[in-house]
Amino acid sequence: RLCELLDNAGRGWRKLAEVAGAEKRFKCSAEELEMCSLKVLEPRGSPTQCLLQLLAERDCTLSYLLGCLERMGHEQACRVLSSAVQDMIRITVQPESQVVTEGTEVSLTCCATGPPGLVYQWFCGRQEVPGATSPELVIDTAAPGGQPEWYICRVNCGATFTFSRWAHIQVEKSSSPSSASGYCPSMAGLQIVQQPQPCRLAEGDTLLLECRAIGNPPPQYQWFRNRCPLEGAQAPHLKVKLVTTAERGSYSCHVFNLFHEVWSQEVDVEIGEGSRQTSVTPHLLCSQQSSHGHSTVLDGAGVSHCVTTAPSPLLAATDKVALLIGNMHYLHHKQLQAPIVDVHALSALLRQLDFKVVSLLDLRKAEMQMAVDEFLLLLDKGVYAGLLYYAGHGYENFGNSFMVPIDAPSAYTSEHCLCVQRVLREMQQRRTGLNIFLLDMCRKRNLNDDVIPQVGALEVTANIVFGYATCADAEAYELSQGELSNGIFVTFLKRWLLKDEKITVLLDKVAEDMGTLEITRGRQALELRSNLSERRALTDPIRPPGQDESSARNLQWAKAHVLPESRHLRFNCGVTVQLGFAAEFSNIMIIYTRVVAAPRDITKCEARLTDIPEELDVDLKCTNKESPEELGSPLAPVWSLGCPSCCLYSRICGLQKLRQELAFTVCLQYHYQGMDDFVEERQRVNVGQPLIAKLNLQ
């Protein structure tokens, strides 16, 4: 019906494309508009249908489309669209399961869009919760009548209704966490309430360890044995049936969510021989081990044999550090999509392996150089320095690889880029224990650049690993499967990254997996270069050398990860606004505002951000949005889990460009009952230098 109305009219599909294009991500190129217009040559072709398909692929919402039709003044099209969707009720904010301490209050939120007059009703199990008819349900876990369990919300308008998903509220007994848990209430939003306990078992018994935590977003778990991650052990409890002596060792649990992490205490699990086992046979006896690492063994005939028993040394790092850079929005070159998702995915995995991670998006040349310089400050003798991961445009000339910053000119040369081999030479000077470069970029020859850079001789250190996403003189690809697709390299790399394998073996397995992909066979294949002589792995444990050195590195890393504290702003009219913060990357921050209290005579109010510093990469059309998805970030479903409902969201990019403290204005607009005009109040807010801005990369 819309196609009939818009295909031939003067206020038709071209006008719709123009109005919708006011939002940057919905703007159609000249080629796309021409493709739409050519649809009239097909028997059943429709330019409007083609345009709507383009908008749908960019996640255009029905409400935005309706707003465009209203701005066009096309009343008939508005009526058609409104009547088609008026009966639809869509849950926009789902209630989340939570783990809470007994005696505290917890709130669940369910928000929906649809026709006017939506009615909410909360249920506990199959029973209605009396009086629970608003989007937010507050539960007192200390209230008599039994502890709450499963909750669900019904939203209806007349006979039309829909249900939210179930949310489970688990109540834990309050207990003080052990000092070994690393929990500090002033620094983390995650608390372990039940620690695992040491145990002594016989072979054939069942091992059961439990670690419980509370936090928002809900905590995730990863169990470790002897400081190596256990595959598939990602629940609050660890259960192993029919244990053998192979399961003995030290166990701990890594608890984390999007913003925080904490470790449980490390406990010993001792496993001896059960009553079903026979005694040790007398036909094989060992004498004391000699000082040379040999044992004398007597067999049943009394003949002695000398056996070497010296174990291989356990390799450990003094620290593990990673710098991840993803360049997407180039000023003079093709835009990329995958780096934002690739960098985020690797950040999450490396943090599980105890890496200190700095993740940055869209850097200019000077900013890339400064980021590398700050990265080098984190390195020291024995540190596993490398993960230097780069995703973006690149090239390779004369055996040297170059990373292309977003401000590189159209005919760039090595002068405009960063040479990977120069970075390696500087890393070697820091005497690092392992240098890993993962380069997710093209390696085609740059015909504009005929200069052979003088990098200088590299040392023979036997600790260098290069993992190239593609072969020399070949391109690296990303899969076009929507906004949340990884590049091909990371798609396979993340399957293996947590495995306890020598890094070169791990990358070999990634290469084998990549070779199974039909669409890139003969076009892209991982290339591994290494002179690594020891069995170094990303899972190797950390053994800090000294408190002073370790503290200095921790401080340098922590500076790049400090978010401003959430605060409440009180305005003269009596309204209180919560100002909160979330980190997407080390240089991208989300700011959200939420009205938490207002006098009864104020019927409508909202708090918006204005006067944001001009040097930051802030698209004004991506500020003060009612839902995280409207910000245009494919990672919104991840970081928004930790944000409250009913907020206005703004995405602040390019924090590395901040030359001074971040200051902006919170503008409160409201009106009183019986008044049509809005009243406005403003407050100036200074949040200091958040995240990477503290390192003064300018």
Automatic annotation (TrEMBL):
A Pfam match is MALT1_Ig
Where is each Caspase family p20 domain found?
Answer: 318-446
Q: Where is the Ig-like domain?
A: 89-164, 185-270
Please list the GO terms describing molecular function.
cysteine-type endopeptidase activity
Q: Which GO terms describe its biological process?
A: proteolysis
Which InterPro entries did the record assign? Caspase-like_dom_sf, Caspase-related_regulators, DEATH-like_dom_sf, Ig-like_dom, Ig-like_dom_sf, Ig-like_fold, Ig_sub, Ig_sub2
Q: Which PROSITE patterns match?
A: CASPASE_P20, IG_LIKE
Q: What is this protein called?
A: MALT1 protein
UniProt source species: Drymodes brunneopygia
